[in-house]
Write a structure and sequence with these properties.
Blueprint (H helix, E strand, L loop, with lengths): L2 H4 L2 H12 L7 H10 L10 H24 L4 E5 L6 H5 L5 E6 L1 H7 L9 E5 L17 E5 L8 H14 L3 E8 L1 H6 L20 H8 L2 E6 L4 H4 L4 H11 L2 H4 L2 E8 L1
Parallel strand pairs: 1-2, 1-4, 2-3, 4-5
Antiparallel strand pairs: 5-7, 6-7
Length: 262
């Protein structure tokens, strides 16, 4: 795998770590895959604080996806940059049309642990190219998850992807986390992904600019660290986590935005 693809092991480790401890999210698949395939992480990428953060972020996406599938059970779900994530097993009712999408070498690895069905598909694709559209029918509504992805796309690549999605599907609900420009700049020098060789990342300060450039509508912001999840930590952990990952400073670096097309 290239350096960007290796970053999938960071959230995988985070979910496995908290799942083993019965915190925030239950993900036995992450535990199993990490035990079999665990990439040798080091430094901040193996911090318990980052594990808590990755697990909370995943749990927020899970809740959102469950909510949107319940509202529109006939919609197709696209999990772009799926890595080894088991979200379909955590949130999707039987019969949900779901595509897990990532680069070919990631999907090749993923096929060792997941099997396709009539409704579940794994699509090897570079989403910077519009060729993916030939593999997914566009006469549907779409629920789209971009977790931990946007920062690896150049601005023109991200707006191009969002525009392609907007043009391809009838109606869209989309959730995406983004670095701010400040965070992207700081990531040249200090970011857990540096531990797997990644330094150049991209940030976005105004979600309305992304919406205007892509034909989507900005539909609001979500919290990545809900208090209900923070309260699952010990008293001392809660104090430290709130200062590092859930306060005003954290919000100046990392945000979660919802978009839609009606």
């Amino acid at each position: 795998m290239n350096d960007i693809n290796k970053t999938l092991y960071i959230p995988l480790y985070g979910k496995a770590y908290v799942s083993q401890r019965g915190l925030i999210i239950q993900d036995k698949k992450a535990e199993y895959i990490w035990e079999k395939e665990g990439f040798s992480l080091k430094g901040k990428s193996k911090s318990k604080w980052l594990a808590y953060y990755m697990a909370m972020r995943a749990a927020v996406y899970d809740e959102w996806a469950q909510q949107e599938i319940k509202r529109d059970p006939t919609a197709v779900v696209l999990h772009i940059g799926c890595g080894m994530d088991s979200r379909i097993e955590r949130v999707a009712p039987d019969g949900t049309h779901w595509f897990d999408i990532d680069f070919p070498d990631v999907i090749e690895e993923r096929r060792r642990y997941y099997s396709e069905t009539e409704f579940y598909h794994m699509l090897p694709a570079d989403m910077r190219s519009p060729a993916w559209k030939s593999s997914i029918a566009g006469d549907k509504n779409a629920i789209i998850i971009l977790e931990g992805v946007s920062m690896y796309f150049k601005p023109e690549e991200l707006t191009g992807l969002l525009s392609d999605l907007s043009q391809h599907f009838c109606r869209i609900k989309l959730l995406m986390d983004c670095y701010t420009k400040r965070a992207a700049k700081a990531s040249l020098y200090k970011n857990p992904v540096n531990d797997v060789g990644v330094r150049l990342l991209y940030g976005y300060d105004d979600p309305r600019e992304l919406a205007n450039a892509s034909g989507l509508h900005f539909d609001g912001e979500r919290c990545m660290t809900p208090q209900a999840y923070i309260n699952k930590l010990t008293k001392s952990e809660k104090f430290i986590f709130q200062r590092l990952f859930a306060g005003k400073f954290a919000k100046s670096l990392y945000r979660m935005y919802e978009f839609k097309k009606e």
